[in-house]
Amino acid sequence: MTYVWVIVSAMLMAAAALTTIRALRGPTTLDRLVALDTMIALCMCGLGAWAAYSRDSTVVPAIVALSLLSFVGSVAIARFRVRDDQA
Fold it and tell me: Domain residues for 60?
């Protein structure tokens, strides 16, 4: 089980690094929005992997809160953003 935990954490860290690069270099605001949504999804995956590894379900409310935050944030930004060419 330890090998699986190490592989999962390494893959999540690599994905987080690539997502950070996309968030910093994204040419449009929608690219940055998708990168930040992906980062929140990676955090949820990390918490889920930790819950599976430690057999502790106390992080499940945090996963639910992150999913709600991600959804509400994405909808709000998609609704109220200004196009990049109008700025």
Answer: 2-86
Query: Which candidate, 78, 80, 79, 87, places its Cα nearest to that of 32?
Result: 78
Of 6, 42, 8, which is closest to residue 22 (Cα–Cα)? Answer: 42
In the three-class reduction of DSSP (H, G, I as helix; E, B as strand; rest coil), residue 32 is classed as helix
Which one, of 41, 36, 52, 35, lies nearest residue 12 by Cα?
41
Q: What CATH code is carried by the domain that includes residue 82?
A: 1.10.287
Give the residue carrying structure tokens 């592989």. 7
Number of domains in the chain: 1
Entry pTM:
0.84
Per-residue pLDDT of the chain (87 residues; tens, 9 = 90+): 789 989 999 999 999 999 999 999 988 888 888 899 999 999 999 999 999 999 999 999 999 999 999 899 888 887 887 776 765
CA distance 16 to 38: 8
